[in-house]
């Protein structure tokens, strides 16, 4: 049984938060975006990146979602500072004071976390900040973007921009709901080491996490 908890006009259009039995879903313009049912691959996105960089790492998480990646970052001993870039104010509030808060144990209140409400592409293009790890969970991956502007992240120019925001030895981790041979080729053309991890899900094709090192 589903129940719409809130319907708002967001940056990308209509956003809906709904409860389905014991879980929550976020729908953007009628397209399923995320839910709280599993989250294994979203946690892995951060944990494999954090395992690959020195202790007390400075990490950027692109896309707050339902907080799975942020919770994994806070639970990892090697992470010292976390920037979360999320363009949708409603998603931030659902996680900060709304029903998603209990999903991750009020992770946004941790003093190591800085939340920036901004479009990730624009923010990365204008900042001088650099990170040990960039962990991106934007839309549903390079082949399935809910917002056209996010496709720039996965382009050749976008990967050059992301590489410039990494510290020496830094890693880029990218989540996707499906594989993309073209994106793998683009990564391998710009990074010295690229791993492609497939994470089985209860239904459909495996989720994918790419891990790329400068």
Your description of this structure?
The protein has helices at residues 40-51, 68-75, 89-96, 120-126, 156-164, 181-188; strands at 2-10, 13-20, 23-28, 31-35, 57-62, 79-85, 113-116, 131-136, 166-176, 193-199, 207-213. Strand 1 and strand 2 form a beta hairpin. The model has no long low-confidence stretch (mean pLDDT 93). Helix 1 (40-51) packs parallel to helix 2 (68-75). It has 214 residues and is an alpha/beta fold.
SSE topology sketch:
Elements: E1 2-10, E2 13-20, E3 23-28, E4 31-35, H1 40-51, E5 57-62, H2 68-75, E6 79-85, H3 89-96, E7 113-116, H4 120-126, E8 131-136, H5 156-164, E9 166-176, H6 181-188, E10 193-199, E11 207-213
Parallel strand pairs: 5-6, 5-8, 6-7, 8-9
Antiparallel strand pairs: 1-2, 2-3, 3-4, 9-11, 10-11
Indicate the radius of gyration in whole angstroms.
16 Å
State the low-pLDDT regions, or none: none
Number of helices: 6
Structural class: alpha/beta
| Number of beta strands | 11
Shape: globular
- Taking the alpha carbons of the first and last residues, their distance comes to 47 Å
Helical fraction:
10-25%
| Helix/strand order, N-terminal first | EEEEHEHEHEHEHEHEE
Give the overall pLDDT as a whole number. Answer: 93
Q: Largest sheet at a glance?
A: 7 strands, mixed
Strand percentage lies at: 35-45%
Biggest sheet: strands side by side, in what order? 7-6-5-8-9-11-10
